[in-house]
Design a protein that fits this description.
- By secondary structure, the protein is α/β, with parallel strands linked by helices.
- The protein is built from 14 helices and 13 strands.
- The strands form three sheets. It has a seven-stranded mixed β-sheet with strand order 2-3-5-1-6-7-8, with helices on both faces.
- A hairpin with a 3-residue loop joins strand 9 and strand 10 (291-298).
- It is flat, with a radius of gyration of 23 Å.
- The protein starts with a strand and ends with a strand.
Length: 365
């Protein structure tokens, strides 16, 4: 399962710089390429050092990382929900994303004019929130109009659905995001088909100047304080630095560049890690002579579900999973030696996959 993340933000906050840096990014040189599907959609492979470890041990014909898709929502401005700017035509693209990366300007630069002539990250966030809320309210109200007719005829299921939809409508009208509405189980089915924008998990990408890349600044602090109860992730990134990293050809050059700035990882990697944490995702691996490959699943998935990511037949005909831990691979160097040492675990249908597991599935269809 590949991740899909929508990037939103006002003009001149660094969103385009960040997206363009991503689109030029050779992340980990040739092993992790970026490709552009459409002008506003691109896919980058997720860097994972464990792939390099397994590749060095197994020496496969190819290495296949898991992928991360970015959707750039261009030109989102005040009034976008009503068709202002270019944003409205792209709002539909974001409905299918797993998470939203909201880029917020947290730097001062007189040469880059803010669309509203001031640097106020809190106000910027509220503008984007309002546009997305208005779009969501439009979707909810359309569905209320449909469900209301059935509810008035006495249909019990429709009455319950209507009550839930009205709950969301009230929250959105009050300037709250859909994710703030506490509903569970069947109640959430009322909005499942709407794919509400403000119901999606959010990563706030605070775009800072080079001087603030390590500690952030007062603007970042204002965002952290504002969203502390949202259950969101806040990532500090310098889009200008990301643009420079994107120009470098080799992994060695990139690493040297990061070290110059005292950074352990790029903003892109931080963004991906934040998305995995926010969505509670983990990675497992398959390893053989033909390929070493990474697979993304939800934390808590059992072995058959994980197998189904490779192919539905693997889940249907699941018999067992053979599991190796990467430290054992590093210690014993080969699968044969791991078996001989008794370090290969044979797991059944109830095994909960752990992050970093190297798995081989036995199945029969």
């Amino acid at each position: 399962m590949g991740l899909k993340c929508g990037i939103v933000g006002l003009p001149n906050v660094g969103k385009s710089t960040l997206f363009n840096a991503l689109s030029n990014n050779k992340a980990e040189a040739a092993n992790f390429p970026f490709c552009t599907i459409e002008p506003n959609v691109g896919v980058i492979s997720v860097p994972d050092q464990r792939l390099n470890i397994l590749s060095g041990l197994v020496n496969p014909q190819k290495v296949i990382p898991t992928s991360f898709e970015f959707v750039d929502i261009a030109g989102l401005v005040k009034g976008a929900s009503k068709g202002e700017g270019l944003g409205n035509q792209f709002l539909a693209n974001i409905r299918e994303v797993d998470a939203i990366a909201h880029v917020i300007r947290c730097f001062e630069n007189d040469n880059i004019i803010h669309v509203d002539g001031r640097i106020n990250p809190v106000a910027d966030k509220e503008i984007i929130d309002t546009e997305l809320q208005l779009k969501d309210l439009e979707s909810v109200e359309k569905k209320i109009a449909k469900v209301e007719r059935a509810a008035k005829s006495g249909d019990g299921k429709s009455k319950k659905e209507l009550a839930t939809l009205q709950q969301f409508a009230s929250a959105l009208q009050a300037g709250k995001n859909a994710r703030s509405v506490k509903t569970e189980g069947e109640d959430r089915n009322a909005i499942a088909d709407l794919q509400l924008l403000t119901d999606k998990p959010v990563i706030y990408v605070t775009n800072v100047d080079e001087a603030s890349i390590h500690t952030g600044n007062k603007y970042v602090d204002s965002i952290r304080n504002l969203v502390k109860d949202e259950g969101a992730e806040v990532v500090v990134v310098c889009a200008a630095i990301e643009a420079q990293i994107a120009e470098l050809e080799t992994m060695e050059d990139r690493q040297a560049f990061l070290e110059e700035y005292g950074l352990k990882e790029s903003g892109l990697t931080k963004l991906i890690h934040a998305a995995y944490h926010l969505l509670d995702l983990i990675t497992y691996f398959t390893a053989g002579e033909k390929e070493v490959r990474a697979w993304t699943i939800h934390r808590g998935w059992k072995a058959p579900q994980a197998a189904g990511v490779i192919h539905s037949d693997f889940e249907k005909g699941f018999i067992r999973a053979e599991v190796i831990k990467i430290p054992d691979y590093q210690k014993y160097k080969s699968e044969a030696a791991i078996r001989e040492a008794g370090r290969l675990a044979v797991e059944g249908k109830d095994y909960v996959v752990e992050d970093g597991d190297v798995m081989h599935f036995r199945f029969n269809v």
